[in-house]
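// run 5 | inverse folding | seed 20
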């Protein structure tokens, strides 16, 4: 075979590899509303930037007639490319080949690009669409999963890891996405569960559909497994590109700064009158977020889960920041188990990747009740406290309205190494709200009243007295627990100036192998 024939053979093999399981399988994939592995990569990466690895890999199994069924790539497309000019490594499972099932060779391809990503310090993006372990390979496929899991663990906190689930993801396959930093699911076409509906019915007797057991709706709102839920795959792939614009390449780099012509001293007069006069009246904290961020942009994470707290990314003066904000329009912004877990995980990611944290506080306390106590609110609330206290990135806190009791301590207080703590004039910082405090402090006096009107007048007087004396920002400011009381319309300017002053912050903390966060 001369050189021209060899080149022709190479071209033919490449064309064959790019067809995956064949045209019929590709049509089947499209009929389910799902893109192919290569179509997904082409949308995700900058045009023409993809460099593929291991196109000619095939499996090595002869059992069960598998020796006669071999496809180039063996069901996963791997390599590297760029997103907005920045290097990323990517793997995309190919459902057209053996249903995207994982073999030993398949796992080795994934492990190779993960090892390379760690060497060069670049993010890894995994696109999941797989029927699970390749049964014909037995324990070797399980070993392949475990090899991937170990790399997910070693890469955690070193390089960003993002998982997109655009098809089935069941059994052992779910744990690799679960070990990564962000999971994106597409509606209708994706699902995740450890055990499927059939086994669930056999073992427990429960009859449940695939969607109700592990669909995107479940994981986007109930379990919190999915950080983002999108209508269609293309939207999810573009979302990954947007998400990476806020993240550094690795934990040794700073987040990417961008030019910003949105004035840092832009005043928002509406903020001066946004907080309702009635302390029990809700408002949407995202109205505040949009007014203080660059170009009113905010990428919310976990938008459908634990909606009593809001977390996500924005830029302020061109600097990426992570924002954590209590949400008074849902459950009054109270902290509960889910909200604590959601915010704690977000804070720890920001801290691992050098992203400053801006906290907007309006929290009446922790949610009471046996359901929360039996579920371990003590431990879960401690996770949030631990995350804030452990974080060494710049932390700027603004108390908007309520900040009561233990929840005040938890929400990036000065005592948890909050760097700069501001408050609006509407802030109420106290052990508890006026109503609860007066019930305790004046309980005996209140019980002695027989006339309801006199009783109500006495309570109102005492509550007002308590509010004036304790439930205001100046009491905390008097002790230095609040660095300044600021005019709401200047919030953007004050936060950006604070972040700039903290740009060179160093706070290494004590030497240790690792902390023991209450899990």
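// decoded
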């Amino acid at each position: 075979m001369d050189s021209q024939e060899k080149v022709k053979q190479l071209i033919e093999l490449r064309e064959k590899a790019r067809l995956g399981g064949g045209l019929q399988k590709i049509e089947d994939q499209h009929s389910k509303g799902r893109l192919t592995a290569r179509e997904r990569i082409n949308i995700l990466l900058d045009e023409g930037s993809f460099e593929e690895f291991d196109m000619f890999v095939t499996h090595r199994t002869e059992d069960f007639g598998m020796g006669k069924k071999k496809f180039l790539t063996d069901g996963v497309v791997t390599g590297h490319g760029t997103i907005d000019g920045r290097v990323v490594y990517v793997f995309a499972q190919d459902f057209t080949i053996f249903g995207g099932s994982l073999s030993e060779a398949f796992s080795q391809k994934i492990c190779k690009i993960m090892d390379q990503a760690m060497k060069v310090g670049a993010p890894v993006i995994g696109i999941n669409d797989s029927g699970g372990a390749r049964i014909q390979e037995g324990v070797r496929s399980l070993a392949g999963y475990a090899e991937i899991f170990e790399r997910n663990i070693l890469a955690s906190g070193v390089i960003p890891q993002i998982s997109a689930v655009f098809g089935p993801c069941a059994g052992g396959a779910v744990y690799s996405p679960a070990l990564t930093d962000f999971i994106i699911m597409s509606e209708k076409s994706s699902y995740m569960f450890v055990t499927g509906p059939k086994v669930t019915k056999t073992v427990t007797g429960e009859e449940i559909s695939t969607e109700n057991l592990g669909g995107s709706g479940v994981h986007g709102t109930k379990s919190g497994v999915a950080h983002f839920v999108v209508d269609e795959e293309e939207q999810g792939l573009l979302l990954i590109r947007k998400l990476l614009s806020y993240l550094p390449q690795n934990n040794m780099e700073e987040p990417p700064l961008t030019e910003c012509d949105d004035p840092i001293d832009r005043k928002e007069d509406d903020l001066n009158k946004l907080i309702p006069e009635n302390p029990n009246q809700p408002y949407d904290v995202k109205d505040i977020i949009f007014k203080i961020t660059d170009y009113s942009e905010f990428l919310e994470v976990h938008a459908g889960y634990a909606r009593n707290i809001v977390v996500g990314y924005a830029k302020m003066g061109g600097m990426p920041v992570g924002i954590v904000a209590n949400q008074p329009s849902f459950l009054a912004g109270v902290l509960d188990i889910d909200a604590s877990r959601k915010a704690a995980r977000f804070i720890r990611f920001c801290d691992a990747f050098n992203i400053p944290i801006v906290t907007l506080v309006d929290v009446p306390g922790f949610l009471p009740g046996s359901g929360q106590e039996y579920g371990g609110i003590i431990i879960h609330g401690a996770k949030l406290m631990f995350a804030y206290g452990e974080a060494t990135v710049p932390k700027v806190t603004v108390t908007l309205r309520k900040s009561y009791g233990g929840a005040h301590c938890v929400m990036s207080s000065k005592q948890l190494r909050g760097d700069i703590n501001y408050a609006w004039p509407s802030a109420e910082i106290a052990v508890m709200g006026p109503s609860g405090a007066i019930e305790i402090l004046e309980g005996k006096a209140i019980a002695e009243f027989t006339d309801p009107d006199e009783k109500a007048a006495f309570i109102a007087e005492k509550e007002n007295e308590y509010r004036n004396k304790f439930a205001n920002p100046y009491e905390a400011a008097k002790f230095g627990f609040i660095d300044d009381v600021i005019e709401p319309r200047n919030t953007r300017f004050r936060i950006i100036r604070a972040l700039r002053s903290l740009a060179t912050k160093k706070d290494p903390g004590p030497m240790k192998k690792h902390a023991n966060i209450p899990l």
